[in-house]
Design brief:
Layout (H helix, E strand, L loop, with lengths): L4 H20 L4 H8 L3 H14 L2 E4 L2 E4 L2 H11 L2 H17 L2 E8 L2 E8 L14 E3 L4 H7 L4 H7 L16 H14 L2 E8 L2 E10 L2 E11 H4 L2 H24 L1
Antiparallel strand pairs: 1-2, 3-4, 3-8, 4-5, 6-7, 7-8
Helix pairs in contact: 2-3, 5-10
InterPro entries: GAF-like_dom_sf, HTH_MetabolicPath_Reg, Tscrpt_reg_IclR_C, Tscrpt_reg_IclR_N, WH-like_DNA-bd_sf, WH_DNA-bd_sf
Keywords: DNA-binding, Transcription, Transcription regulation
GO biological process, one term: negative regulation of DNA-templated transcription
């Protein structure tokens, strides 16, 4: 092990502690030590160090993720030119369609949700800002994947089988490729229960001067989405929202 690799390993282990705390909700040194297969004193040192940053909070002998992460996440979102160009449009899209509207972007091999807007009548997808899912697993991600450079698509699809989120997720790369070509040509994507059972998505890419910014989408019950006239109207509504976000981005 080289001297330069030691701090990198330490950082990786610290993030492992954070992942465990997020999963467990709260935990003490003994529990973290068991989960990480380290001594209790080592686990304690990690927890104390993280608590000193404010990103982890000690409460009655146990540790949990602190709200400082929420602060940083909110700042990150509100610094985004894409988000600021789309915020009002996404809210308007939800109001006009009566459905749950979402804004997302690509990161690595995932679609990441930046923002959503809905009301008590909208479907509930149990998503939140920062939620991520494999980019191939629903319409909002596939409109991004379809607009990636060919070499990037080849890289992401160079597997025997893609991850399944539901039984309806397309997991065969060879079956997905022609769908991506169709999505790129028609400028939108529709899926039925590929991400959430009982729910479908209509999505469009947001492009500005050749740059792929992200995607805007709506989620609704698959029963409504299978109605041809409703689906076509929804596609037009989402396309209009994508175009409005693009214009806002241009002049933001």
């Amino acid at each position: 092990m080289t001297p330069d690799s030691v701090p990198l390993q330490t950082v990786a282990r610290a993030f492992e502690v954070l992942e465990l705390l997020e999963r467990e909700g709260e935990a003490g040194p003994a529990r973290i030590a068991t989960l990480m297969d380290v001594t209790r004193s080592t686990a304690h040192d990690y927890l104390v160090s993280l608590a000193s940053t404010g990103f982890v909070v000690k409460d009655e002998g146990k540790y949990r993720i602190g709200y400082r992460f929420l602060e940083r996440g909110s700042r990150l979102k509100h610094r985004s030119r894409f988000f600021n160009s789309a915020d009002i449009v996404v809210r308007k899209l939800s109001a006009d369609s009566g459905e749950l509207a979402q804004l997302g972007c690509a990161e690595s091999a995932d679609w990441v949700m930046l923002h959503e807007s809905g009301d008590v009548t909208s479907v509930q997808t149990r998503t939140y800002p920062g939620f991520r899912t494999p980019i191939h697993s629903h319409a909002a991600g596939k409109v991004l994947l379809a607009n990636f450079p060919a070499e990037r698509i080849d890289e992401l699809l160079d597997v025997d089988e893609l991850e399944a989120v539901t039984e309806h997720t397309i997991t065969d790369p060879d079956a997905l490729r022609p769908e991506l070509e169709t999505i790129r040509e028609q400028g939108h994507a529709v899926d039925h229960e590929e991400q959430v059972i009982g729910i479908g998505f209509v999505a469009c890419p947001v492009l500005e001067d050749g740059e792929l910014l992200g995607s805007v989408s709506v989620a609704c019950p698959t029963g409504r989405l299978r109605q041809d006239s409703y689906r076509e109207d929804l596609i037009k509504t989402v396309q209009a929202a994508a175009e409005e976000i693009s214009v806002n981005y241009r002049y933001h």
